[in-house]
Amino acid sequence: MTDQDVVATGATHATRAASGGIWDCHTHIFGPYAQHPLPANAIYSPPPAPFSELHALHAGLGVAHGVLVQGACYGDDHSALLTALDSSAGTYRGVALIDPQIEEARLADMHARGVRGIRLGLMSHLGGRIDPGRMLAILDRIRPYGWHALLHGELKDVNGALETLAPHGVTLVIDHMARVKAADGVDYPAFAAFERFLALPNVWIKLSGADRITGGAPSDAAAVVARRMLDIAPGRAIWGSDWPHPNIAYPRPDEAQLLAWVRAVCGDADTAASVLVRNPARLYA
Known about the structure:
This protein has one domain (3-14, 34-283): Alpha-Beta Barrel (TIM Barrel). Helix content is 39%, strand content 14%. The protein has ten helices and eight strands. It has an eight-stranded parallel sheet with strand order 1-2-3-4-5-6-7-8. Helix 1 (3-11) packs across helix 4 and helix 8 packs across helix 9 (255-266). It is globular.
């Protein structure tokens, strides 16, 4: 597929996501299950969390744009995600789960409907694994579309994957602050190795999962981690709420609190505008 083909394909769908307004760059939707049931072998079975609920939440928070990340429980069935994107008039984007053998026509259709990235899962409880050959083959498939790849894993595995994938040149976005343990701080060898990767121009950080790295409400310890990462990549940092917070064993976080937390991490209005508005508008164009 040529660059001209990609542009033409993208132009066949709804309006491009506008540059103005806050972005929530990490959400999932599940259901309605009458229309979009989980497969019989779903890796987990979350409560319903349809797009209508997410959209209402965003309206209440003043969030103008969102990113829908395909849940591992849906596997290859993207019907819920694509239906939601179709209804969003271009204000939402999607992140898919694909195999290297996916048909070109299906990739082009996803792009036209608002998908702008794929997720590479490294978390074993979600069926993820490090498979360098497979991951590189997937990056080859998405490169013509200008898509990025999310890396979702714990710090050791993220560092290992970056060793292989970062030289490939495709934009890589690290989910949930690499699932570091906030209590460990930022001064240890594995974190230093991650910082070196984060300094690369094609590596981005998602300041999401503040609750996941602490096991509860966002804390000062999570803020220390986020600020260090933000200092390294202020033009390549974005935020996500992780709504509806699947697979957690503590009380569900409050999205308004998470948004206030990231604004406090940013420290000033211009940095917050970069993280919440300018950076994601560029990544998800």
